[in-house]
Design a protein that fits this description.
The complex is a heterotrimer.
Chain A (H helix, E strand, L loop, with lengths): L1 H10 L42 E6 L15 H9 L2 E6 L6 H11 L5 E3 L7 H6 L7 H7 L1 H8 L4 H7 L13 E2 L7 E6 H8 L15 H18 L5 E3 L22 E4 L2 E4 L4 H15 L20 H5 L3 E7 L18 E3 L13 H4 L13 E3 L5 H13 L3 H9 L11 H5 L7 E4 L2 E4 L14 H4 L9 E2 L2 H6 L2 H13 L13 H27 L6 H32 L1
Parallel strand pairs in A: 1-2, 1-3, 4-14, 6-9
Antiparallel strand pairs in A: 3-11, 5-9, 5-10, 7-8, 12-13
Helix pairs in contact in A: 5-6, 10-19, 19-20
Chain B lengths: L8 H7 L1 H19 L10 E2 L5 H4 L1 E2 L3 H8 L3 H31 L4 H16 L2 H11 L5 H10 L10 H29 L3 H9 L4 H27 L5 H7 L5 H4 L2 H11 L3 H30 L5
Antiparallel strand pairs in B: 1-2
Helix pairs in contact in B: 1-2, 4-15, 5-9, 5-11, 6-9, 7-12, 9-11, 10-11, 11-15, 12-14, 14-15
Chain C lengths: L6 H32 L3 H5 L15 H7 L2 H31 L8 H13 L4 H10 L17 H13 L2 H9 L4 H12 L1 H17 L2 H6 L9 H14 L15 H38 L1
Classes of the chains: A alpha/beta, B mainly alpha, C mainly alpha.
């Protein structure tokens, strides 16, 4: 959806796809000072002089903060500004044009001091190679002591490994490092109430388990749902909603067939889901379900839609059976008693394809990372002055302390001057966002969560600092989660939603190019063929799938696989 | 005046001095806002990376063009571009003129005005909104699908998931949105046709049909030709945004045109140099078309835009 | 002029009126749908398929309240108004001049100039070079970026040119004999004769400016005070999208039932003014054209 919208954004100017740059190229300015293979020698450029006020520009994507427009207004930011005698000046593009604005910034060389890279389409390694950003490794020991200590603590080896590249560079101050694994915010869900209704409360799955687990269980569930919807006389309904491209790139459903939706690692070998045998088994099943009318008949056309978020019309209208849901939809949250709709939504794991021997991914699950380095985080522009850089580091470093993590994750306390902040005062939070009595954490009344998680709730987000770098203390957040959310999260994690290729592996600029170009070559073909296989407009046989897989490989999957493998091997042998 | 030879620049400058002065701001405007940025076209010949800029990116000669011409979908994309535009030209464009002529035949003033106002409405509905509605109405149980199933007995399916309907849907929505608005210029041309001509023809015994053929249409011919030439010339550079909203991978085979291909490659897939090359190819062909149609109209109708 | 009405004429008229009514109906239906949906019960709206003929459930103005309580909407309205008026006035003035220049048969620069202008319609350097030019002119985050770079457009110039060329040469010749200079000829004598073309162009420019948000999103990144209405509305639409199930890195989990309503309302808010103003422009437009016709 976002892609399409983005394209639309650009449609205004026909030739907007022609990007060019002015050659504000710093060349090796950043790279030259570093020794290539060694770890970082600490660099000392003088202490951070807090007497001197500094204005630091920060590029950040925009979000819906509900109570203010610019992140400059964020209470935590204002607190930090006072504490560190600086002004964090956020430059936030209009929503919907982030990626384009980021490319524009790169292309014209007018960088902010610090940039958040979620919208950057190039890897950090290649940004460094092109002289856009600084290597931060040499500064950490002197200017980010807390962060440095955190990285070097034995229990944080995973984060350290993810952050440093093979040559000992470190480019990003992570957007957030989670102390504990978070609850999943979403995954597959099903309407259990339908089954209860149809069986008179004695739901029994063919597998004998209490929840649907195998493909046979799903067959049964879907058939029951269809009977139910048909009997209800609904014109437009969907027992199962799948995305327009025909599969979940994040792996839902697929993992039950032993493959992931993208590049993943199995027994040390990198594989690409859509060309594996398990994917064929998946397609065969989906085709069967589509023919039987289980799968949403309009799925392939739902690539974008202004008025109906993908299929909310169905899910909230009570005419969907299984879909990709969220924590906030569980149990009876979607009931509409005033319209006679009582639902019971429960989490659901990928259907295990018991007929196939390769169905392993769902059982083992995939490893989870505490930090995603290549996709999120703050980098420092090479054009940023050293003074600004070390001041930003001081600020960020504070957010890696226990105190800073609390501030970032839960907002201001009374001691931190909650009453002095107009937004806090206006919201009746003069006593701070939370109070701690010993080990007991109490969230302030106006902010009590309603969807099983504190920080990610839209209205609370305005009062905390969750767009800043630092540690995410999610201990109390997890404790606040409702029981059903925790239970659902466990189900979703067990399914192995993520592809487990380490996201911290950074490709060189050249290889990044190759992978991007391969992707552009095979993705159209893939996205065209999968829905056609499912809808039956393209014959699906062992032979035709083999031909499809061969074509995919020759369009660049093979080359990308080799690259992924070699980087993975190098990463693991470190 | 006699000192300066007629037909020379200095002669022309002398008699048209103020025109030359008026030209200056116009030329400056286009130089600054349109020509100055054109150095960006260079990236069509580069393996362009934003971080390296034009000066830092490596030149690859015609590789980007070769990639496009030898790519697996070149033929398909070209065909779709031609067909979709040709449909608009052969069906959509004459309908616009016909609508203007038909409207002209309506003599109830209030009715004419109402229809005219109403017919522009769709144009003011933004593209995004309109496409959202089209997607909704073409779904398996959508309004349009229902009509087609009941009236023409097609098999019930999502119309936007079947490649064979895409051209029709695209043409129909184009007409729906553009008919009223596109006819403005013709209506304005028709109303400026001298009423004396009409009266003279009426006196000669010409009925309304004959007057339409022999008076109205010839009078608005220059407008028609101008619009036609412009349509031919710009047909390759317009229309991508709507298709981007309506198409999906299962209809690429009939829906993917050069403009959408450029968008997908350039923005979603970061192939900047490649998409610039395709865009440049598009522009060159478009210019050729423009000149060609201009030449044709000069020959056939003695009207041209250049 | 009174004419005999034969039977074929009657049939033609019936068909013609019938077609016009049918076509008008098709034009109105989707707009009707949007307006009715914008005052419907949001929950019912979500589960409704097909055209909304009348408001679903109790009529609600909640969506409009949400849209209009946003202060930026009003600021955006003000800005858009400035941009629309400025561009319509100055832009059409320049277009008339340019169109006049390229329609002078005895002007040697005529063809080179036309090619020079047409070329810009076909080739464009792309976003980044354009940005750099604008930056070099000091127009980034500057209100004038909405008021200078969009003034001229090759397409409108071509339309203007064809208007001037349809006029008989005699107007100009007689004016010249009376000793009128080119400015007088252009604005006093010829421009009133091509009033229809000018009105059409003014309207094209106004509509385009009304809908424009792209340049603002690129060139006014840090100047929200100068944003046109459409950019604010667009952000509202996108904001609701970011909560979408599929994207959800943050997934503001609780689905907002009003979000659909807000979208419909935003569409109405963005479109209604131009729809309301249009009949008045049209009136002017029609009289302008008739005057030209009678005099001709």
């Amino acid at each position: 959806m976002k892609k399409k919208l983005l394209s639309l954004v650009l449609a205004g100017a026909m030739a907007s796809s022609l990007f060019a740059g002015c050659g504000d190229n710093k060349g090796s300015a950043g790279g030259g000072t570093q020794s290539a293979g060694g770890g970082a020698e600490p660099v000392d450029v003088g202490a951070d002089n807090l007497e001197e006020s500094r204005e630091i520009t920060v590029w950040l994507y925009k979000d819906d903060y509900k109570i203010y427009d610019s992140y400059d207004e964020n209470p935590v930011v204002q607190y930090l500004n006072g504490k560190f005698n600086c002004t964090l000046k956020f430059q936030q593009p209009a929503m919907g044009s982030e990626k384009e604005q980021f490319s524009l910034m790169l292309g014209t060389g007018s960088y902010t001091d610090v940039m958040e890279i979620s919208n950057c389409q190039e890897g950090v390694a290649s940004l460094y190679e092109d002289g856009v950003i600084k290597d931060l490794a040499p500064y950490l020991e002197n200017y980010m002591p807390n962060f440095y200590a955190f990285l070097n603590a034995p229990e944080n080896g995973d984060v350290k490994k993810a952050l440093y590249d093979g040559d000992g560079h470190l480019f990003t101050i992570p957007f957030q490092v989670r102390l504990q694994d978070e609850n999943r915010w979403g995954g597959m869900v099903y309407r259990r109430d339908i089954l209860e209704t149809m069986t008179g409360g004695n739901v029994a799955f063919p597998s004998g388990n209490g929840e649907p687990t195998t493909v046979e269980d799903w067959d049964y569930v879907l058939e029951t749902m269809k009977t139910y919807f048909d009997a209800a006389g609904l014109a437009d309904y969907a027992c199962l909603i799948i995305p327009a491209q025909g599969y979940f790139e994040t792996g839902e459903l697929l993992t039950g067939f032993g493959v992931a939706g993208n590049f993943y690692v199995q027994d040390g070998t990198v594989k690409y889901g859509p060309v594996e045998q398990g994917f064929y088994n998946y397609l065969v099943k989906m085709k069967e379900w589509y023919e039987k009318g289980y799968i949403y008949q309009d799925f392939a056309s739902r690539t974008n839609d202004v008025f109906y978020l993908p299929n909310t019309a169905l899910t909230y209208g009570g005419s969907a059976g299984i879909w990709f849901g969220m924590g906030g939809q569980l149990d009876g949250a979607m009931s509409m008693p005033e319209y006679g709709l009582e639902v019971n939504v429960q989490a659901l794991a990928s259907p295990l394809d018991t007929a196939s021997t390769s169905a392993l991914l769902a059982q083992t699950g995939l490893e989870n990372e505490r930090v995603a380095m290549n996709t999120q985080g703050y980098v420092v522009a090479d054009t940023c002055s050293e003074e600004n850089m070390i001041r930003f580091m001081s600020v960020a470093d504070y957010l890696f302390t226990d105190e800073g993590a609390m501030l970032r994750s839960y907002g201001l306390t009374a001691e931190q001057g909650a009453a002095d902040n107009s937004y806090y005062a206006a919201a009746g939070l003069s006593g701070g966002a939370y109070t701690m009595e010993g080990e007991t954490f109490t969230y302030a009344e106006p902010l009590v969560p309603n969807v099983g998680a504190l920080c990610i709730d839209g209205s609370n987000m305005s009062y905390i600092g969750n767009r800043l770098p630092g540690l995410l203390n999610n201990e109390y957040d997890l404790a606040y989660a409702t029981e059903s959310v925790s239970r659902a999260s466990a189900v979703w994690k067990g399914t192995g939603r993520d592809n487990n290729y380490p996201s911290s592996i950074a490709f060189s600029a050249e290889d990044n190019d190759k992978i991007a170009s391969n992707y552009s070559n095979y993705s159209d073909y893939l996205n065209t063929m999968v829905p056609k296989f499912i809808m039956g407009t393209e014959a699906l046989t062992e032979e035709s799938f083999a031909a499809f897989a061969e074509q995919m490989k020759s369009l660049g999957v093979s080359e990308s696989l080799e690259l992924y493998q070699s980087y993975y091997d190098a990463f693991m042998s470190e | 005046m006699k000192k300066v030879k007629k037909g020379t620049w200095s002669h022309d400058f002398k008699i048209n001095r103020s025109l030359y002065f008026l030209t200056i701001p116009i030329v400056l405007y286009f130089l600054i806002f349109n020509y100055a940025p054109m150095f960006g076209l260079v990236i069509a010949f580069q393996n362009f990376k934003p971080t390296r800029g034009i000066l830092g990116s490596t030149f690859v000669g015609f590789q980007n063009f070769i990639d496009f011409f030898t790519g697996p979908n070149f033929g398909m994309i070209l065909r779709n571009t031609v067909v979709i535009n040709a449909l608009g030209l052969v069906i959509g464009f004459p309908l616009t003129i016909a609508f203007a002529l038909l409207l002209n035949e309506i003599y109830k003033k209030w009715f004419k005005k109402t229809v005219q106002t109403v017919s522009y409405l769709p144009y003011f509905v933004s593209m995004v909104v309109m496409c959202g509605l089209v997607i909704e109405f073409c779904a398996t149980n959508g309004v349009i699908t229902n009509v087609l199933v009941n009236v023409f007995h097609i098999s019930r399916e999502n119309l936007l998931q079947n490649p064979k309907y895409f051209w029709g849907i695209n043409l129909f929505t184009d007409i729906w949105q553009g008919l009223g608005y596109g006819s403005i210029i013709f209506i304005s041309a028709i109303t400026s046709v001298s009423s004396e001509l009409h009266e003279a023809a009426a006196i000669d015994g010409a009925g309304r049909w004959k007057r339409c053929i022999h008076v109205t249409i010839p009078s608005i011919m220059p407008t028609i030709v101008t619009m036609l030439v412009l349509k031919c010339g710009t047909m390759l550079s317009l229309g991508g945004d709507k298709i981007l909203l309506l198409y999906n991978p299962s209809t690429y085979e009939t829906a993917d045109i050069i403009a959408t291909h450029v968008q997908r490659m350039g923005i979603e897939k970061m192939q900047y140099g490649y998409s610039a090359a395709v865009g440049l190819f598009n522009s060159v062909v478009g210019t050729a078309l423009l000149l060609l149609s201009n030449y044709a109209s000069k020959k056939l109708a003695d009207t041209s835009i250049v | 002029m009174i004419e005999k009405v034969g039977p074929s004429r009657v049939i033609f008229n019936i068909l013609n009126y019938g077609f016009m009514i049918f076509f008008s109906f098709i034009c109105i239906v989707p707009i009707w749908h949007v307006v009715m949906a914008s005052v419907s019960d949001p929950r019912l709206l979500m589960s409704h398929a097909g055209i909304v003929w009348k408001p679903l459930g109790d009529i609600t103005a909640e969506g409009y309240r949400l849209v209009l309580q946003n202060k930026s909407i009003w600021m955006g309205y003000g800005n858009t108004l400035i941009y629309v008026i400025w561009n319509a006035v100055v832009g059409s003035l320049l277009t008339v001049i340019a169109g006049y220049l390229v329609s002078r048969k005895d002007f040697r620069l005529k063809n080179p100039l036309m090619i020079f202008i047409l070329f810009t319609m076909m080739f464009s350097g792309g976003l980044i070079p354009s940005y750099q030019v604008i930056r070099a002119l000091g127009l980034i985050n500057n209100r004038w970026v909405m008021m200078i770079p969009g003034l001229l457009n090759a397409f409108y110039i071509t339309m203007m040119k064809s208007g001037f060329e349809q006029l008989s040469d005699s107007y100009e010749e007689s004016a010249k004999l009376d000793g009128a200079g080119p400015m007088t000829i252009m604005f006093r004598i010829l421009a009133p004769l091509v009033k229809a073309n000018i009105v059409v162009i003014v309207m094209f420019i106004a509509v385009m400016q009304w809908n424009a948000w792209y340049p603002a999103s690129i060139y006014l990144p840090a100047a929200r005070d100068y944003w046109p209405l459409q950019l604010f509305l667009r952000e509202m639409l996108i904001q609701n999208d970011t909560a979408a199930v599929v994207m959800g890195s943050d997934a503001a989990a609780a689905a907002d039932f009003t979000s659909n309503l807000v979208k419909y309302c935003a569409v109405v808010v963005a479109t209604a003014p131009i729809l309301c103003i249009y009949p008045f422009i049209q009136k002017y437009f029609v009289t302008g054209v008739t005057l030209g016709g009678v005099k001709g």
